[in-house]
Amino acid sequence: MEHKVREWKQVMIPYEQAVEELKVKFKAIRKEYRDMNEYSPIEFITGRVKRISSILEKCKRYNIPEENIDEMEDIAGIRVMCQFIDDIYKVVDLIRARDGKDLSIVYEKDYIGNPKDSGYKSYHIIIRYPVQTAFGTKEVLAELQIRTLAMNFWATIEHSLNYKYQDKLPLDIKERLKKTADAASMLDLEMSDIRNEIIRAQLMFEQKSNLVSDI
Ligand code: 0O2
User: Fold this and answer.
1) Strand order in the sheet with 123-133
2) Which residue of the set 143, 158, 175, 190 is catalytic?
3) Do residues 107 and 126 lie in contact, with contact meaning Cβ atoms separated by under 8 Å?
4) How many Å lie between the centroid of ligand 1 and the Cα of residue 144?
5) Could you give phi then psi for residue 9, rounded to 5 degrees?
6) Of 69, 74, 114, 167, best ligand 1 pocket probe by most atoms within 8 Å of the beta carbon
7) Distances (CA, A) of 187 to 45, 109, 151, 183
8) Whether residue 143 lies in the annotated active site
9) Residue 125: which of 164, 163, 159, 95 has the closest Cα?
10) 3 state SS of 109
11) What is the DSSP letter of 75?
12) Domain extent listing, the chain
């Protein structure tokens, strides 16, 4: 048993390293924007390595032999939270620009254009990420989830309720949760509208001030 625990800890090392490195890289992007006094499309970043019990449960669910866990796409997971929906696509572009450099994109899943039946929204990018270990380079898969604060609020609570009730929530509760997902989407749209309105008003004010100073 102790031997098995030691083995698992060793398997997890490159995934832990990938999560730490990717968090540092996304935080560096945010710092760059802030140092230049520019608005950052990244609000905050979290990361986690999947728990061993969840990995084993997923192996069982998808019939993945334990020795093939490196096929699993979300052992290393990074979440990038944004204020506005537009920011998500700016972050996606930043990631695409790094494709073939420090990471490679395997594929993308757009759960914003195509939300899940639960109401879940987020933009997922699966990447291959090389980690330098004491025994050479190890490429691991990682899942980047990019979402707004409202999407994250909804997903965090929905996930914890589902987890608590072991995915057996009654249909009426699922439907109510779906409605709260719609409310979160409305909030995102309204916030974007308000922001655009403020930007438009600011531009008009600047144009008027320029006209006055030209006279
Ligand atoms: P955790 O704790 O975040 O790791 P599967 O991984 O089997 O669920 P698939 O198709 O391989 O399915 O991956 P998918 O659905 O593209 O992305 C899986 C992850 O996205 C989940 O990981 C969640 O983080 C998130 N996610 C997907 N659907 C939902 C949903 O309906 N509600 C919430 N709250 N999150 C969702 P894990 O392993 O479930 O959880």
Assistant:
1) 44-49, 76-82, 136-148, 123-133, 104-110
2) 143
3) yes
4) 12
5) -60, -40
6) 74
7) 21, 23, 10, 6
8) yes
9) 95
10) strand
11) S
12) 2-156
Consecutive H or E run containing 66: none
In 3-state terms the chain splits into helix, strand, coil percentages (rounded to 5) of 55, 20, 20
Pairing of strands 76-82, 136-148: parallel
pLDDT digits (tens, 9 = 90+) for 4-41: 778 888 999 999 999 999 999 999 999 999 999 999 99
The pTM assigned to this predicted structure is 0.94
Return the structure tokens found at 43: 């609000």
Q: pLDDT tens digits, residue range 70-84?
A: 999 999 999 999 999
CA of 21 to the centre of ligand 1 (A): 22
Q: Does the domain spanning 2-156 belong to CATH 3.30.460.10?
A: yes
Which run of H or of E encompasses 42? none
Distance (Å, whole) CA 111 – CA 92 = 13
